[in-house]
Amino acid sequence: MRTHWRTYIIPAMLLMSCMLLSACKSPAEQRICFFGSSVCRGVGADSLNGYASQITATLPTGWESVNISVDGNNTYDLFARFERDMTPIEAKYVVIGISLGNEGLHEKGARAVLSYKENMPRLIRMLQDQGRVVVVTNNYPRADFNEVDYEDLCAVNLEVQQWDIPTINVFGTIDDGQGRWAEHLWNGSDIYHPNQLGHEAMASSFPLTMWEALQAGKPLPEYISTQGDENGVACVSFVPEGHVQSYTLSYISADTTYTEVYAAAQKKLWQYANGQQVSVTEGIDKTIGTITIQGNNVHQVFFYRAAMTEREVRALARGKMLRSSLEIYCPLLGGETTNYAQTMNCVSIHNK
Known about the structure:
Elements lengths: L5 H19 L6 E6 L1 H4 L9 H7 L6 E4 L7 H6 L1 H5 L6 E5 L2 H4 L1 H4 L1 H20 L3 E5 L9 H14 L6 E2 L2 H4 L21 H8 L6 H6 L17 E6 L8 E7 L2 E8 L4 E6 L2 E7 L8 E14 L5 H8 L8 E5 L17 E2 L3
Parallel strand pairs: 1-2, 1-3, 3-4, 4-5
Antiparallel strand pairs: 6-11, 6-13, 7-8, 7-11, 8-9, 9-10, 11-12
Helix pairs in contact: 3-11
């Protein structure tokens, strides 16, 4: 029997087309590049198993990371090696992991703050111009920071919380309340780096499903007003993703903004009403499981995977949209339960 050439050629062409289409799907779509300094590289952790490595271990199946962080780097260093080190990397997502310490905060003060605030937006734009999704960790402690350094650090971090990109509040997991490493989160002699426990604390500030949400194109959350809405709920609950060490929980009930802040690094729990401290309890070692909120017309529910400073709590109570390490943002407008945070987590309503 004579077989026509098309019997073989056309299926072969179709098979080749499918193979080419598969090859065109870049692995960069599920790759994260960590671009920072020594803490981002993992210095201080056992065998460099720092927060970047720990985040990599929790990534969804098929995802991977590359770490091109260099010890001592600041914003100027990232600029200097951008074309050589960053541009060739095929990675859709880039985590910038640097801090004001390397920028010279303790030595230069306001000049370091200025260079950070001028250079970081430029770095972010350069990465975005390459089609990348940028995630920034906020500024973290150092063992030699003083009161002035702490005030500058907190002021800049409040701005970072409001940037129009995903940001991570690593500071809120390791701060001793004065801008230095909490006692058990560094080794007592290396003033620049956290220890293994410190890196684990920093890693806990990253929402686990953030990468899936970003890949799905979930937009940056914006504040949705619920003023005058009386269709909130009586009881709402959710389960934080994975292991959470520190947190900030905020919601409105009966026209009062209640905020609860737990700092595992300090073993302290603060309660606020409308941004004003009501109480503080010390010596708390808290295990965080299901979180349930009960009240009258509960709405504007926020849950963050880090402890906020008092300055940030006041800003949140004034209606500022703070986004760093935000896992849940549920306005509950009309009782509707959409979570607008860039995660895949959700809330449940339990109205009586």
